[in-house]
Amino acid sequence: MEMVDWRQLYGLRSGVEGSIEEFVDGHRGRRCRYRGLAKTHVQHVLTALAINVERLSLQEPADGPYRPRPPTASQQYLDKQGLPRPLWWRQGK
């Protein structure tokens, strides 16, 4: 079994915790409108669908005007010298 870098695990965990926090605080996930496990489950599934639709509506279209930023002067210097660029720890590379 291959050792997984702690940064990859932490990045995954922080993403999951953010999703749970959004459900609990942003969509009143601690309170259920209905009684019973089956009705509660249906409410949670529908709330999760609504959150996903909301997230999808906020995404830029693939053919939209977004273009990545050009490299900074320090990144251009590193590229010119053949040195690796430092990556942000959440990129998991």
Describe this structure in words.
The chain is mostly helical. The protein has a domain at 1-54. Helices cover 56% and strands 0% of the residues. The chain is built from 3 helices and no strands. It has helices at 6-26, 37-58, 73-81. The longest helix is centred in the middle third of the chain and has 22 residues, at 37-58. It is elongated and about 65 Å long. The chain starts with 5 loop residues before the first helix and ends in a 12-residue tail after the last helix.
Layout of secondary structure:
Elements lengths: L5 H21 L10 H22 L14 H9 L12
Quaternary structure state of the chains depicted: single chain
Shape: elongated
- What series of H and E elements makes up the topology? HHH
Fraction of residues in helix: 55-70%
Strand content: under 5%
Number of helices: 3
Determine the N-to-C terminus distance: 19 Å
Secondary structure class reads mainly alpha
Low-confidence parts lasting 5 or more residues at pLDDT below 50?
A: none
Residue-averaged pLDDT: 83
**Total beta strands:** 0
Largest sheet: none
Radius of gyration: 20 Å
